[in-house]
């Protein structure tokens, strides 16, 4: 019997090639999009879960607040002493380890050239007891026991030691010899720890004493059970009272927080690089897509049933029971779903690299050998068959033969009202996502065009690590002579994402216990002018200021502060000039007050910032290009000078706008996904509307014939048929606008600076939906309006 059902189903699919192709195309597109989104969501929610003890790995962070600061400052790094305390005084902690970025250059000497390696990191010797990466070579328990030992990733090992074992080989980094003690497999893409090598921190001066005065280490731990997080948090609260007791008495506030490492990516505002809100948005989009696909499939099956009314009627007259008709159509629907599902799986596998590139994420399907995948696919197929094929099969099998031969198939049972409800639902979802897409696009344009108070245009960024002061000054002097270069400067951090947390105290004119938290960054003297930051009061840094700050006996610093910092210390910009302050032990006077500029993403409000000249280390060199000079010519000129001064330098560069755009990677990813899949949702909704228009025209074909006989024009009939459909779209628009407004209002709350919810965008979304809907139904309505009345009434 089942074999017979399958043969009949296949025969009907082949017989109705056009209908079957249309229906399976919509189904394939919908399932493929759903699977791509599901893969991305799985990737984002699986960060760090590849570790064998992922549920027990803890991540520790710190928050602090100075007495006169308005709110707590969160830091993803912790004091050096925390690791030792966790290891010795917390019985719940099995292992604790520290990670510290290697920031002093990373120049690897190989042959006659030096290659820059930016992803180097120091770690304690027990780090691999917590992060159990797959070792290709070496014993993980002893690879970092001694100073100057290094563990390479597989890619880095092949880069420097091709076709041979890297173990016991020597890698020269910044003129220091490092012995390769291990090689680990390349890390998967779903991790926040992205490094190319781990270096032993044994022998580093900063780890000789357990310091609590600064926070620069990433601290992780392996708890004995996954139930210990709460008890560890309670002990951390008590630890704060012990280690910072004197500071707390002075009005400072501190707090440690422990979180699961696997939760950090999406749930931590301190250290996470993802956003759970965007995952929820994409989940909603994926569910909406598959629901729309099922609805569209159902509508097309119901519309096609009209053309097969005589087949169904004859079968019922000849004795076919309701059960037989039901299973015939269910098998036919299920077969189309199965074919579409198979094509979708292949399409997903083929499109995943392209989709990953589109989303800016390297995704991998590495679970093909897991039984759960095939159970999920089977479950998905059964549910989809019941949802998309079960109802049409039930409706068709319930029809009476007398209704069928009177051309009233499923008019009463399904009711055209059901199809209308489905269409309204489809367009509600489609218009909702159109609204969200338009607003998201507007916000992204706003971000790109907003004046952040800092000129990012035509700024070339060179890696400043490894440059000595004399080399950097020589580079600046030579570059300044080029007609393509407008200015050169340097700083510790990128000016669009300054991370340094500092404290100002000993403020002139304030009480002795006055203290505020600020963000601060060491800069080269021409920083303000190169970035065209507006000066409010005071004068720019001079060579004399640099010499005074560099004095090793009695240094005297000159500070540049923004207007918010001046206000926070109780001064007007003019009054602030010449005032004395102490920035983390650096004493000096305020030399200049500048306009407050955005030095982080627009998700964050502008806060007090201090710029100070400190030439010990600069991570970035910035070259301002003249706008009128061809970029490639300027790059070639700069490269020539760089190679002249530092022949081994491999000339790594990028533009500052790339750093700026990186701050909004998650926003851009989600916006791109919404733009793409909004087009697909409206396309699927239009397919459903096309099915409904076909269905309705077939139901009213005789009415159309009679109206033409009594003199109705083509325009009259087209408008008569179209108005009913457009009313459904207008109803969907009325329903979706409030939801779209609410969703976008909540989303824009994530940005400290954002667009307004302008009314014209809602009108644009509604007008687009109406236009697309009219074009969709016009084919059926115009064709029906132009048909010969004799053909319409032939059966009568």
Tell me the layout of helices and strands.
Elements: H1 2-15, H2 17-45, E1 57-65, E2 73-75, H3 81-89, E3 93-101, E4 107-110, E5 113-116, E6 120-123, H4 127-130, E7 135-137, E8 149-153, H5 154-160, E9 170-173, E10 176-184, E11 197-200, E12 218-223, H6 229-243, H7 245-249, E13 253-260, H8 261-267, H9 276-307, H10 309-317, H11 322-359, H12 371-397, H13 401-405, H14 411-449, E14 459-463, H15 469-480, E15 485-491, E16 501-505, E17 515-523, H16 527-530, E18 535-538, H17 543-550, E19 557-562, H18 563-568, H19 573-576, E20 580-583, E21 586-594, E22 609-613, E23 620-625, H20 631-645, E24 653-655, H21 656-662, H22 665-699, H23 701-709, H24 714-748, H25 759-785, H26 789-792
Parallel strand pairs: 6-11, 8-10, 17-22, 19-21
Antiparallel strand pairs: 1-2, 1-12, 1-13, 3-6, 3-12, 4-5, 4-9, 7-10, 8-11, 9-10, 14-23, 14-24, 15-23, 16-17, 16-20, 18-21, 19-22, 20-21
Main traits of this protein?
alpha+beta, 796 residues, elongated, 26 helices, 51% helix, 13-stranded mixed beta sheet, 6-stranded mixed beta barrel
Strand count: 24
Distance between the termini: 39 Å
> pLDDT below 50 for ≥5 consecutive residues: which ranges?
408-416
Proportion of strand residues: 15-25%
| Rg value | 34 Å
User: Quick check: average pLDDT?
Assistant: 85
The amount of helix comes to: 40-55%
How would a textbook summarize the main sheet?
Answer: 13 strands, mixed
Shape: elongated
Q: Please work out how many helical segments DSSP would assign.
A: 26
Helix/strand-derived category reads alpha+beta
InterPro entries: ABC3_permease_C, MacB_PCD, Macrolide_Exporter_MacB
Keywords: Cell membrane, Membrane, Transmembrane, Transmembrane helix
Membrane topology: Multi-pass membrane protein
Subcellular location: Cell membrane
